[in-house]
Write a structure and sequence with these properties.
The complex is a heterodimer. Chain A is an alpha+beta fold. Chain A has 14 helices and 6 strands. The chains are: A alpha+beta, B mainly alpha.
């Protein structure tokens, strides 16, 4: 039976037609698969490129700050905010500011929430309770956005005393950062420099905003004093400085009345609501005047 | 293709009993071969690969959902027309066997593989192969009128 089986199976053979069709099929499949593979490779490359582009664009849109809120009390820091109103980075400009930026988790939260967290911080509250003035400067070149942000910032701080909200352009940001000051503090420094050209950025670096405001107030008083009432104590700045070195009370008392009348919000910026009251403490005079 | 075309074709036809399906599997097997990255140690190794792939492809086709609902179970074999009557009788007898017997009969009686080799190629136990061969031989003898010369 083995032989009969073998001979019988011998009759079953792959015909030439079958082989030809199979060869054609293989060529067609090879070509098709090569094309599919090539197309798939292109599609994959295109998808990767698209993904990369979308990712980069999204990342750029998200991580590029379009505005800044400079928060200055004694801790001095800046919240960099993207077009989606999220805080993308926080820069501290002094040790206290850096510590505050590290302690509070402000990244990627809405800037109003970030401000609420800042204002609720025990350290900031302690400064406010001591009568220190908090300056919030919205830095944005888009007027409409700037106005909206200022309104939001004012809304966040409406229940607080001694808070000054402003808005302005970013024209001085680079200079401010170059000298190691936040935009808010640098703005105050520029106001002071207008009144007292001898002041250097380092002179205001360590001062709180209340101290800088007092200095501005007193410098303004000293400038106005000769024209209105030529009092010797305000005429002679050097004398005032020398006196300040020995006793910080003397010049303050001599200019106090004018300090009440002076307005020093200054600059080209829009002014927000000013909750602060200049108490005329004048601590900075002993340290920095002259 | 020349070297293994007949082996693959016979296996396809014996397993599937249908020319159209056999041709589909035949082409699939050679496409798999073209696309395969397997490195063969010898011609025997390569032939064993063809047999294993063909049997598996036939099983896959028979298991496929589409075919199980479109092809009648009781199908007639599609044998070549020029087969002499006595050999046609033998082939009809082989094709009348259950599918599990047909592969082992072909591999043992025509290709000359031993039971362990068939077991290895088909993924079956050696004893099962012996049993299948014995039962197939018995059934074939009964169908072919008591020819017990093998």
């Amino acid at each position: 039976m083995d032989e009969r089986l073998r001979q019988s199976f011998d009759h079953i053979q792959a015909g030439e037609g079958l082989k030809r069709r199979t060869s054609a099929y293989l060529v067609q499949q090879a070509f098709y698969r090569q094309r599919v593979r090539s197309l798939r490779r292109w599609a994959l490359a295109a998808a990767c490129a698209l993904l990369l582009t979308v990712g980069s664009l999204g990342g750029w849109l998200f991580f590029t700050p379009v505005s800044t809120i400079s928060v200055d009390i004694n801790p001095s820091l800046e919240l960099n905010i993207n077009r989606f109103d999220r805080v993308v980075s926080v820069d501290g400009f002094n040790e206290a500011g850096q510590a505050l930026a590290q302690n509070l988790d402000l990244r990627f939260v809405n800037y109003t929430e970030a401000l609420k967290r800042l204002l609720a911080d025990a350290e900031v509250q302690a400064y406010l309770d001591q009568g220190e003035g908090l300056s919030l400067l919205v830095v944005c070149d888009d007027q409409e956005r700037s106005g909206q942000m200022l309104a939001q910032v004012e809304g966040c701080t409406s229940g607080q005393q001694n808070v000054h909200c402003h808005a302005g352009g970013s024209e001085n940001s680079a200079e401010a950062h170059a000298v190691g000051l936040s935009c808010g503090k640098y703005r105050a420094y520029l106001q002071l420099r207008e009144l007292d050209p001898t002041v250097a950025p380092e002179d205001v670096e360590g001062l709180s905003m209340r101290e800088i405001r007092q200095w501005i107030q007193e410098a303004a008083d000293q400038e106005e004093a000769p024209a209105e009432t030529p009092e010797p104590s305000c005429d002679n700045k050097e004398t005032s400085s020398e006196e300040a070195a020995s006793s910080s009370e003397a010049p303050e008392s001599s200019c106090e009345s004018k300090a009440e009348a002076g307005s020093h919000n200054g600059g080209s910026a829009q002014h927000g609501q000013g909750h602060g009251q200049h108490d005329g403490g004048g601590k900075h005079q002993g340290k920095k005047h002259g | 293709m020349e070297r293994y075309a007949d082996t693959v074709w016979r296996l396809c036809l014996i397993h599937l009993k249908n020319r159209a399906d056999a041709e589909d599997v035949f082409q699939t097997v050679f496409l798999k071969y073209v696309l395969s990255t397997a490195a063969f140690e010898s011609d025997e190794h390569e032939k064993a690969w063809f047999i294993r792939v063909t049997v598996n492809a036939c099983r896959d086709l028979l298991r496929s959902f589409f075919r199980s609902r479109t092809v009648p179970l009781d199908e007639l074999a599609d044998l070549p027309a020029n087969v002499p009557e006595d050999h046609r009788e033998v082939l009809d007898a082989v094709l009348a066997l259950p599918a599990k017997y047909r592969d082992v009969v072909y591999l043992h009686y025509y290709e000359g593989y031993t039971a362990p080799e068939i077991g290895y190629m088909l993924g079956k136990n050696v004893n099962s192969v012996y049993t299948l061969l014995a039962r197939a031989k018995k059934q074939l003898a009964e169908m072919l009128g008591g020819d017990r010369d093998g």
